[in-house]
Structure to design on (975 residues):
C-alpha cells in the first residue's frame, strides 16, 4: 500500500501541489543540511529525513508554503579519499604525480554519479523533498558565494593568516578543524608508551653547588617522538618541587630504571608526584623547591640542535600535577601549549617532520613518526636516558576519513577570528529556540565559549579555492582578496568556466605595488565553510535571488543529530553572525543517535541491526517513522535499535487503527451508509460515547498542535497510542451494537457519523507523522480524489493538501473525559477480580459495590455491562474501589451458559461464511432449559428468526459445543 501511495504522489505531483497551493506570503523556511555526496543512507539519515519531513508536512497543513530542496556536500576529504581509493593513490605526492587537473576531474565525475541511491530510500520513508535542482557545493555559483562570504569576513577583519598548531593528518597531509575531530568517529582507543626520561641539569643556584653532574629533571611524555624537537622544559611556578636522592634500599629493590651502585643520583620532580613515580623507600627528599626557583636553569638536551635560547626551564600555567612528573617537555612544533609558550619565552622552533609525518633529519629520517616511536624508546633506554617506561591506553584522535592517527603540528593556515565575535555568538544564541532546550546553554553555548579560532584552510585539491592572491616578491606584502569572479577578471583579465584547482591557480597577474607576480595561495577551504554557507550560497546570493534569500533567512527550522551542535549548527552560526550579524536559524531540533540492538555502535560486521529495507518491508515506513518520532531520540537522547518496539507500534497503534477503520468501512458498506458531508463533519449526537470520543479527539488535536508549535515531537506523537486504544477498545467496542441494529434509526446514524468524523479528523492529525496510512484512510473515507476523478466537491485529493484540524474547545468535555477514564480504571480493577477468581466475563454476576459515586447514569450502565453484573451500588465504607459479588446462583449459571452458546453460534456463523446481516435459523439438542429461559436473548444476539428443539433439516453447519462438561448440539441454517 505504501508503495502504491508513493507512486500516486509522484504521478499526481502531490508534493509540488502541497507547496504551490500555499500562499507565497505565508512562507515557512527550511534548510536542509547537505549530506556528503559520498555517504550512503543509514538509520541516522533516515531519522533526520523523517524529522525533516514530519515538521514541514505539519506546517504545510497549517497553511504555510514550505519549500524543501535537497543539497549535496561534494568537496573535501570524503570525496578525495573515495577517488584516491578508486585510482589507487596513496598520498599527496601520488596526486601531484597524476596531476591536480586529472584528480579533480575524477572527483567531479565520481560525485556527479552517486545521487540516485539516496532518492529511492528517501522516497521509501515518505520524505518529500525536491531532488531536481538540488544545490551542490561544487557548483560554480555556489563556490562564488563562498568567495563572497570569505571576502565579507575579511573586510570585517575576521580573517587572519598565522602559523599555529592544529591536529594534522599525516596521510591526508592537511590540518583538520577541532569540530571535525569532535564529531563522532574521530577518537579511538590507542595504546602508547608512557615514558619518563632523565635530562641532566647543567647547574643553577637552586642546586646548592653539589652533585650537579648527577642531577636530572624527570620528564614525562606519551609522544616520545616529539623529544627530537624538544627545546625547553616547563614547570608550574607555584607548584612544589623536590630534589630526591636514591637510597641504599633502592639498589637492593630497584628494577632496571635505577642506576648502578657507585653513583648516587638526584632527581627533580613535583613533590606530589613522588609517590606515583617511585616505590616506597626508593628515594629520600633532600631539598624542597618552588617551581619559580627552577626557572632559568639549563639542561643537556638528549637530541641537541644548534639553536639559540633553548634547553632551559620555563614557567607555564598549563603544567599540572595530575599526571606525569610535573615537568613538561616543550616542542613548539608539535603541541598547542608548547607553541603558545614560544612567544613569551622567545623559544626557537624545531620543525623536523614533513607534511607526510616523516622525520626530515637524524637517525629516523624518512620514517613516519608513529612508526619510529617504539625505536626511539629503545634508543633512549640503550643510551641511559630512559628512567621508566609504562604503557597507557587512552582515547586519541584519528582522521575522520582515513583513520590515520593524527599528530599536533604547527602549520601556516588561515583562520576565522572566532574570539573577536564570541560575545555576539553568545548573544545571538539567546534568540534561537533549541529543542531540547538544555542544548542552548549547555553543549552549544559551551562550544562557543571554548571554541578556538577556526582553521578554514586545507592543503588539498578538491574544494573551493581560497580567493587570496599574494605578491611573490619578498617583503612586498601585497595581498588581494576577491569576493567575486568578476573582480578577479577585472584585475587579471581571465574568466574561467570552472574555478577549481588547478585552473584557478594558473591565474597570475602583476602586483600593483612592485610589479612582481601575484599568485594564488595554494590552499582550498575547509568544506565546513561551504556547508555553513548554504543559506545564501544555495541561491548564489548576493549575485542572484536576493529576494528569495531574504525571504528564507533566517530559516524557521533545521534538524540534525547531536554531533552537529559542534559542526553544522556551529558553522552556520559563526558565518551568519560574522557576515550578517544575526542568527541563521530560529528553531532547531536535535536528535540523539541510534546504537545497534546490543547498545554498541551500529556495525555491519557485528550484525547488531537489521537492514532498513527489511524493516520497511516487514513493518512499514509508517511504523518506523512513528517509532523514531516518538522515541527519546527526539529529546536528543540515544537509543538502542529495537525491532520489537517497531513491531509493537505496528500492532498497538497502526493495526489497531486500521482495524477500527476496517470495522467502519465494512459496516458502512453493508448498510450503504454515506455521510452527508463526505469530508467529515461533527455530528450533533447526544449519545454519551459519541460526545466522549469527539471530546477526546479534540483534546488530542489540541495537544498535537501545541506540541508541534513547540517542536516537541515526542509529546506530539505519544498521545496517539492512547487515543487509538480509546477509539478501538472502548468507543467501537462499546458502540458495536449500535452499528449492528437492523433499522437505521437516529442512534445508528449518529454512531456512523461520529466514527466517520473521528477517523477523517484523526487521519488529518496523524498525516505529518504517518503519511501513508493517513492518506489511505482519508481518501477512502472522503472519496477526495484529484480533480480528474472527482465525484464530488474537491478538497484537493490528498490528506496532505488539507488544513490541519483545529481543536474546538467547545467540543472538549474535560469532566466527561475524566469520568470515563475513572470508569475504565474501575472496570479493569473489577475484571482483574474476575480473573483472580477464574470467573469468565461471560458469566453474569449479581452485583458490584463501588467506593466512589459515578454521577452519570449512562456510565453506570456501561460499567454494569462491562463487568457483566446485574447492579452497581455505591458503598463508601469499603476499602477497594470496587468489589464484585462472586456468588453464582443457578439462575446466573444458566445465563452464563446462554452467553457461551451465543459466542459459539457467532463462531459458527463465521465458519459458515454468513454476511454480518444474514438472518439464520437455529436448532438444538440437550439445552432445553437454557433455550426455554434465554432463547430470546440468544435469538437477538445471533440474528436468529427461529429457534427450534431438535436437528435442523439441511443445516449449513452443526457443532457439538462443550460448556462446563455438558455437551450441546447446535445446528445453523441461513434463513
Ligand atoms: Zn586522513
Ligand atoms: Zn608586490
Amino acid at each position: 500500500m505504501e508503495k502504491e501511495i508513493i507512486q500516486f504522489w509522484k504521478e499526481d505531483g502531490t508534493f509540488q501541489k502541497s507547496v504551490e497551493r500555499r500562499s507565497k506570503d505565508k512562507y515557512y523556511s527550511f534548510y536542509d543540511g547537505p549530506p556528503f555526496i559520498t555517504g550512503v543512507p543509514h538509520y541516522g539519515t533516515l531519522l533526520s529525513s523523517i524529522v525533516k519531513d514530519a515538521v514541514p508536512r505539519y506546517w504545510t497543513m497549517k497553511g504555510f508554503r514550505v519549500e524543501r530542496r535537497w543539497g549535496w556536500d561534494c568537496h573535501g576529504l570524503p570525496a578525495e579519499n573515495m577517488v584516491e581509493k578508486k585510482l589507487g593513490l596513496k598520498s599527496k605526492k601520488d596526486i601531484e604525480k597524476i596531476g591536480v587537473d586529472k584528480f579533480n576531474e575524477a572527483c567531479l565525475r565520481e560525485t556527479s554519479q552517486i545521487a540516485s541511491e539516496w532518492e529511492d530510500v528517501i522516497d521509501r520513508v515518505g520524505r518529500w523533498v525536491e531532488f531536481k535542482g538540488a544545490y551542490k557545493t561544487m557548483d560554480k555559483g555556489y563556490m562564488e558565494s563562498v568567495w563572497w562570504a570569505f571576502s565579507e569576513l575579511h573586510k570585517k577583519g575576521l580573517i587572519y593568516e598565522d602559523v599555529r598548531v592544529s591536529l594534522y593528518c599525516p596521510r591526508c597531509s592537511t590540518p583538520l578543524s577541532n569540530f571535525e575531530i569532535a564529531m563522532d568517529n574521530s577518537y579511538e582507543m590507542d595504546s602508547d608508551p608512557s615514558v619518563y626520561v632523565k635530562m641532566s641539569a647543567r647547574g643553577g643556584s637552586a642546586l646548592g653547588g653539589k652533585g650537579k653532574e648527577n642531577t636530572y629533571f624527570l620528564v614525562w611524555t606519551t609522544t616520545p617522538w616529539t623529544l627530537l624537537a624538544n627545546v625547553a622544559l616547563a614547570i608550574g611556578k607555584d607548584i612544589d618541587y623536590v630534589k630526591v636522592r636514591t637510597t641504599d634500599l633502592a639498589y637492593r629493590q630497584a628494577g632496571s630504571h635505577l642506576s648502578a651502585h657507585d653513583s648516587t643520583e638526584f632527581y627533580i620532580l613535583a613533590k606530589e608526584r613522588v609517590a606515583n613515580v617511585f616505590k616506597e623507600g626508593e628515594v629520600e627528599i633532600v631539598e624542597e623547591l618552588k617551581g619559580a626557583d627552577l626557572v632559568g636553569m639549563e639542561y643537556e638536551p638528549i637530541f641537541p640542535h644548534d639553536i639559540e635560547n633553548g634547553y632551559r626551564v620555563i614557567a607555564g600555567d598549563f603544567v599540572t600535577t595530575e599526571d606525569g612528573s610535573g615537568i613538561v617537555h616543550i616542542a613548539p612544533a608539535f603541541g598547542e601549549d608548547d607553541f603558545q609558550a614560544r612567544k613569551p619565552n622567545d623559544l626557537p622552533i624545531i620543525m623536523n617532520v614533513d607534511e607526510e609525518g616523516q622525520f626530515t633529519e637524524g637517525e629516523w629520517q624518512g620514517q613516519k613518526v608513529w612508526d619510529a616511536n617504539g625505536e626511539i624508546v629503545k634508543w633512549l633506554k640503550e643510551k641511559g636516558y630512559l628512567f621508566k617506561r609504562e604503557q597507557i591506553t587512552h582515547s586519541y584522535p584519528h582522521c575522520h576519513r582515513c583513520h590515520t592517527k593524527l599528530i599536533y603540528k604547527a602549520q601556516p593556515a588561515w583562520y576565522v577570528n572566532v574570539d573577536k565575535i564570541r560575545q555576539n555568538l553568545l548573544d545571538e544564541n539567546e534568540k534561537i529556540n533549541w529543542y531540547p532546550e538544555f542544548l542552548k546553554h549547555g553543549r552549544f553555548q559551551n562550544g562557543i565559549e571554548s571554541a578556538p579560532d577556526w582553521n578554514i584552510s586545507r592543503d588539498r585539491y578538491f574544494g573551493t579555492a581560497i580567493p587570496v592572491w599574494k605578491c611573490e616578491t619578498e617583503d612586498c606584502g601585497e595581498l588581494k582578496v576577491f569576493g567575486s569572479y568578476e573582480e578577479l577578471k577585472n584585475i587579471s583579465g581571465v574568466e574561467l568556466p570552472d574555478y577549481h584547482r588547478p585552473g584557478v591557480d594558473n591565474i597570475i597577474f602583476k602586483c600593483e605595488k612592485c610589479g612582481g607576480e601575484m599568485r594564488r595561495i595554494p590552499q582550498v577551504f575547509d568544506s565546513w565553510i561551504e556547508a555553513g554557507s548554504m543559506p545564501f550560497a544555495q541561491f548564489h546570493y548576493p549575485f542572484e535571488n536576493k529576494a528569495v534569500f531574504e525571504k528564507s533567512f533566517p530559516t524557521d527550522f533545521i534538524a540534525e543529530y547531536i554531533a552537529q551542535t559542534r559542526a553544522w549548527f556551529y558553522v552556520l552560526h559563526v558565518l551568519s553572525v560574522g557576515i550578517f550579524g544575526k542568527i541563521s536559524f530560529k528553531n532547531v531540533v536535535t536528535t540523539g543517535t541510534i546504537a545497534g540492538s546490543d547498545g554498541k555502535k551500529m556495525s555491519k560486521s557485528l550484525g547488531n541491526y537489521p537492514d532498513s529495507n527489511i524493516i520497511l518491508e516487514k513493518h512499514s515506513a509508517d511504523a518506523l517513522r512513528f517509532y523514531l518520532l516518538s522515541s527519546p531520540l527526539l529529546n536528543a537522547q540515544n537509543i538502542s535499535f529495537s525491532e520489537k518496539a517497531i513491531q509493537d507500534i505496528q500492532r498497538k497503534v497502526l493495526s489497531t487503527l486500521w482495524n477500527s477503520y476496517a470495522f467502519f468501512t465494512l459496516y458502512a458498506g453493508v448498510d450503504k451508509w454515506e455521510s452527508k458531508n463526505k469530508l467529515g463533519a461533527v455530528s450533533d449526537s447526544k449519545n454519551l460515547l459519541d460526545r466522549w470520543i469527539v471530546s477526546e479527539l479534540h483534546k488530542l488535536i489540541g495537544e498535537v498542535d501545541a506540541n508541534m508549535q513547540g517542536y516537541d515531537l515526542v509529546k506530539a506523537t505519544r498521545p496517539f497510542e492512547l487515543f487509538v486504544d480509546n477509539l478501538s477498545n472502548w468507543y467501537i467496542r462499546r458502540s458495536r451494537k449500535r452499528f449492528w441494529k437492523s433499522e437505521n434509526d437516529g442512534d445508528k446514524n449518529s454512531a456512523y457519523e461520529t466514527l466517520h468524523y473521528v477517523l477523517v479528523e484523526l487521519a488529518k492529525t496523524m498525516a505529518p507523522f504517518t503519511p501513508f496510512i493517513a492518506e489511505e484512510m482519508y481518501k477512502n473515507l472522503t472519496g477526495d480524489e484529484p480533480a480528474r476523478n472527482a465525484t464530488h466537491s474537491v478538497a484537493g485529493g490528498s490528506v496532505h493538501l488539507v488544513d490541519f484540524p483545529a481543536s474546538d474547545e467547545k467540543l472538549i468535555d474535560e469532566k466527561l473525559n475524566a469520568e470515563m477514564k475513572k470508569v475504565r480504571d474501575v472496570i479493569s480493577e473489577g475484571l482483574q477480580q474476575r480473573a483472580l477468581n477464574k470467573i469468565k466475563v461471560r458469566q453474569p454476576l449479581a452485583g458490584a459495590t463501588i467506593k466512589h459515586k459515578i454521577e452519570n447514569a449512562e456510565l453506570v450502565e456501561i460499567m454494569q455491562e462491562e463487568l457483566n453484573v446485574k447492579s452497581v451500588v455505591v458503598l463508601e465504607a469499603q476499602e477497594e474501589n470496587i468489589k464484585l459479588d462472586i456468588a453464582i446462583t443457578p439462575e446466573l449459571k444458566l445465563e452464563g451458559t446462554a452467553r457461551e452458546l451465543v459466542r459459539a453460534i457467532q463462531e459458527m456463523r463465521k465458519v459458515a461464511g454468513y454476511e454480518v446481516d444474514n438472518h439464520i435459523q437455529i436448532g438444538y439438542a440437550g439445552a432445553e432449559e437454557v433455550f426455554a429461559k434465554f432463547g430470546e436473548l440468544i435469538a437477538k444476539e445471533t440474528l436468529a428468526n427461529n429457534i427450534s428443539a431438535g436437528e435442523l433439516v439441511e443445516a449449513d453447519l452443526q457443532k457439538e459445543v462443550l460448556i462446563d462438561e455438558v455437551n450441546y448440539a447446535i445446528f445453523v441454517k441461513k434463513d
Notes: The two ends are 38 Å apart (CA to CA). Residues 208-212, 788-794 have pLDDT under 50 and may be disordered. The longest strand covers residues 187-200.
